[in-house]
Amino acid sequence: MFVSSARPSGATILHADLDSFYASVEQRDDPALRGRPVIVGGGVVLAASYEAKAYGVRTAMGGREARRLCPHAIVVPPRMSAYSQASEAVFEVFRDTTPVVEPLSVDEAFLDVSGLWRVSGTPVEIAAKLRAEVRERVGLPITVGIARTKFLAKVASQEAKPDGLLLVPPDRELAFLHPLPVRRLWGVGAKTAEKLHAHGIETVADVAELGESTLSAMVGGAMGRQLFALSRNIDRRRVVTGVRRRSVGAQRALGRRGNSMSAEEVDAVVVNLIDRITRRMRKAGRTGRTVVLRLRFDDFSRVTRSHTMHRATASTEAILSAARGLVATAAPLIAERGLTLVGFSVSNIDRDGAQQLELPFTEAVDTVAIDDAVDQVRQRYGNAAVTRGVLVGRDPGLEMPLLPD
Predict the structure, then answer these.
(1) What pTM does this model have?
(2) Which annotated residues bind Mg(2+) (predicted)?
């Protein structure tokens, strides 16, 4: 693991974020799409070009609603292999820029450029060169925010979009941050913003005027402490590279049709997601103990449930059993609010892939053997060669990249 050296006083942290990544790849590869509203994904919007966003189209929105907002949009099917190749090429540019790169997702990362000024110039010059390199070598637009802290660098990139570059000088941090709406603070989603708005808190400056205890009373202890610190740009985290994945997850957006799905149809989605997750875990030699369920509803509210098993495992049956139990506890909410997204992740990862067998040994060994056999068949003949009975004849759906809550 490589960690950046002691924090310098200047703004040397870059947050680099590709603009409308999937849609930009489609516009890059098809000149006829350039300058036109593009939606990636039919049933659910996986990405929208800025031309489509101008009409209110947003990621994870149902396809029908997106087409209502922008009837002349061009809808294209996703090409995950193309996006994966583009991501790898962009991260190659990042690593050519600095050895200290912390990936956040397939299309964004933090970079620390402290100590490079003698070789590469100022942070602004480095960021400008990075943007030009991504454009020349990969053909995609990218926005870069520069600041003294990771939090503010990310906010700067959000403010600079699309295809921009913004530096927040250390002596102008609060002047830049405080006029922004509270949604710019990490962790403030629709529900937390609603709570703050109910108290007349609209901007980051309004948050900064409150004490930690007052904020905690409004939004809870952990969130209150976080808002108290971020509203003052207190963020001591360093840019770290070499961080191993702490969870393995997948999610599927259901769109409006989720409102009418039966319990059996929801269970099929659960089975499909857990099958994909556990297959990845075994391929990577990982086991985990905690299963986390994430649900999003028709009113855009979210619910999270988790269950920690008494041993680490990558067994499909064991993790599926825990996942089904979590869904059962949330069943009343699903029926009441209308389900639009289901996601799971497995955390408390054992990087050595250790699985503790239990008595009776024959049953435990049989489960592992079955998983291994299925994995080998799929590796040789394709994922569709062996499937679960509950999934026969059903649309496996398109797995979405894990999105922030």
Answers:
(1) 0.68
(2) 17, 107
Q: Residue ranges for the binding site?
A: 17, 107
Q: What is the CATH number of domain 248-391?
A: 3.30.1490.100
Query: b/e map of 219-258 (b: 16 or more CB within 10 Å)?
Result: beeebbebbbebbebebeebbebeeeeebbbbbbbbbbeb
Q: Does domain 8-171 have CATH number 3.90.550.10?
A: no
Domain 178-230 has CATH 3.20.20.70: no
Q: Shortest CA distance to 169 belongs to which of 107, 219, 124?
A: 124
As given in the structure block, the two tokens for residue 62 are 């149902």
Segment holding 159, helix H or strand E: helix 150-160
What are the b/e assignments for 32-43, b being 16+ CB within 10 Å? ebeeebbbbbbb
Q: Provide the annotated active-site residues.
A: 108
Q: How many CB atoms lie within 10 A of CB 294?
A: 20
DSSP 247: -
Per-residue confidence band for 169, with pLDDT thresholds at 50, 70 and 90: very high
Domain boundaries, the chain: 8-171, 178-230, 248-391
Beta carbons within 10 angstroms of residue 377's beta carbon = 13
Higher per-residue pLDDT: 261 or 11: 11
Joined tokens for residue 223: 């969130």
| Rounded Cα–Cα distance for residues 282 and 257 (Å) | 32
Tokens of 14: 């870059």
DSSP for 258-297 reads GGG--HHHHHHHHHHHHHHHHHHHHHHT-BEEEEEEEEEE
**Residue 61 CB neighbours (<10 A):** 21
CA angle centred on 71, ends 69 and 77, rounded to 5°: 100
Binding site membership for Mg(2+): which residues? 17, 107
Lowest-confidence segment of 81-95, 194-208, 385-399 by average pLDDT: 385-399
Which one-letter amino acid corresponds to residue 79?
R
Distances (CA, A) of 368 to 146, 238, 239: 48, 40, 38
Q: What is the CA radius of gyration of the chain?
A: 23
**If you average pLDDT over every residue of the chain, what do you get?**
84
Name beta bridge partners: 102. Answer: 110
First to last CA, the chain: 27
> What is the CB neighbour count within 10 angstroms for residue 48?
27
